[in-house]
Design a protein that fits this description.
Elements (H helix, E strand, L loop, with lengths): L7 H4 L12 E2 L22 E7 L5 H4 E2 L4 H6 L11 E2 L5 E2 L4 H8 L3 E8 L7 H10 L11 H9 L9 E4 L15 E3 L12 H9 L9 H26 L11 H14 L6 E6 L8 H26 L5 E7 L19 E6 L6 E4 L16 E2 H13 L3 H5 L12
Parallel strand pairs: 2-9, 2-10, 6-12, 6-13, 7-8, 7-9
Antiparallel strand pairs: 1-8, 3-5, 4-5, 6-11, 10-11
Helix pairs in contact: 9-10
Length: about 400
């Protein structure tokens, strides 16, 4: 019989800081020793998933621009992307002028734009909407594990490598929260070591002198199982990242460097299947044009480098990137040359396995819901398509309900 316990953040900490920060590994213990090797179901298509969260509420109308819509041009003055600037996709919409790399992906059929994404009865609070997006449930954290946590439990019911799911950054997104497959939280793979803050555990392990006492054998096995996991995972992660060589032109900003780690882990085939990164700065209530232009430039440069990196290793054929935010912005500008919290916005799905083009229905800019773009696509339809297409999991089992399927991935 297998027993799991949570050692949480106190159990595995990082001792030093480097160019990217720190690393934390949170891992459920193995039952009386080490867990069985990964048993990937035969139905698993073997695609990796990179999650890119645009935190703060990305203005979808400035990312995928309805440049030919009179309502857009009337509602936007200081934030408007003009017809002479936009990277036109058709006679109605185009990409932000800084998204040249994504335009190349579009031309190659490797970019899907899913329009009008949100959920019924939307919430404009960052915190509550964040929880809904990360759990795929209106109950938020009360629903339990995050949607990626449930996805991994469904796909790997009996085990997986410790670094199955990795977040590169300081704060673990709740989508990765899992009682079965906790994520590796990574900032600096150079600084990875295991330190227990659990005083009884430390004393027990130190006092044992390497020998098990009958009364303590379960606890010692538990600790040794965690140590074994941490050590093995540390070696694999550090080896993959520190030995990674690529001609991709990653910028020096945190976002691009986070994606470089993703490229290393996926390119070296360490067993990592989900990598999460975050780009903040999208809460553009004031002076939006300058700030949002800069965010789009950083986003595009990072994704362009990642695509090149994955192509070099061949991992591009097995990797899908999902770009999302917790909500969009209102159609009408505010009085501070910015936009306030809104509802529907596009999601981007990027990669060689992707069926590129437009998916879903563009929301009307004249038939608004309390001043906001109305939802035309439930974001959980995107999750369902990726759960099945990337991992062979049942979308309804992972998400707790059936959602319309979108043909986002090639057959």
């Amino acid at each position: 019989m297998q027993h799991h316990f949570s050692i949480d953040r106190r159990g595995l900490l990082i001792a030093s800081f480097g160019a990217l920060g720190s690393l934390v590994l949170s891992r459920a213990a193995r039952a009386q020793g080490t867990e069985a090797p990964p048993t990937h179901p035969s139905r698993d298509p073997g695609l990796n998933l990179v999650l890119v969260q645009l935190s703060g509420g990305n203005d979808g109308l400035s990312m995928v621009v309805p440049w030919a819509d009179d309502a857009y041009n009337k509602a936007r003055t200081s934030t408007r992307i003009g017809a002479g600037e936009v990277l036109k996709l058709d006679d109605y919409r185009g990409l932000h002028p800084e998204l040249k790399g994504l335009r190349s992906a579009w031309d190659a059929g490797a970019l899907a734009i899913v329009e009008g994404c949100s959920y019924p009865k939307p919430n404009r609070s960052h915190f509550q909407s964040y929880e809904i997006w990360h759990t795929a449930s209106m109950r938020g954290r009360d629903a339990g594990d995050g949607w990626i946590g449930r996805l991994c439990a469904e796909t790997w019911p009996t085990g997986a490598v410790p670094e199955l799911v990795v977040h590169v950054g300081a704060n673990e997104p709740y989508s990765l929260h899992s009682t079965r497959h906790p994520a590796v939280i990574l900032q600096n793979p150079n600084a990875y070591k295991w330190i227990s803050d659990e005083a009884p555990d430390r004393s027990l392990y130190r006092d044992s002198g390497g020998k098990e006492r009958p009364a303590d054998s379960d606890a010692l096995r538990r600790l040794r199982g965690i140590l074994d996991d941490a050590t093995a995972s540390s070696l694999r992660v550090r080896k993959a990242v520190l030995e990674h060589s690529t001609k991709a032109g990653y910028a020096e900003d945190d976002f691009s460097q986070s994606l470089r780690v993703a490229g290393a882990l996926l390119g070296k085939r360490t067993g990592t299947r989900v990598v999460s990164v975050e780009l903040g700065g999208f809460d553009t209530h004031t002076n939006q044009r300058t700030a949002h232009d800069a965010r789009m430039r950083i986003l595009d440069a990072g994704l362009k480098a990642l695509r090149q990196d994955l192509a070099e290793s061949g991992a591009d054929k097995h990797t899908v990137v999902l770009v999302f935010s917790e909500f969009g912005r209102r159609v009408q500008e505010n009085g501070s040359r910015g936009t306030d919290h809104g509802v529907a916005a596009p999601m981007l799905v990027l990669g060689a396995p992707v069926s590129g083009g437009l998916h879903g229905k563009h929301p009307s800019l004249t038939q608004l819901s309390d001043g906001d773009l109305a939802m035309t696509t439930d974001f959980r339809s995107v999750y369902a398509a990726l759960a099945e297409g990337c991992f062979g999991a049942s979308g309804s089992r992972v998400l707790g309900a059936q959602y319309p399927q979108l043909g986002l991935l090639k057959a």
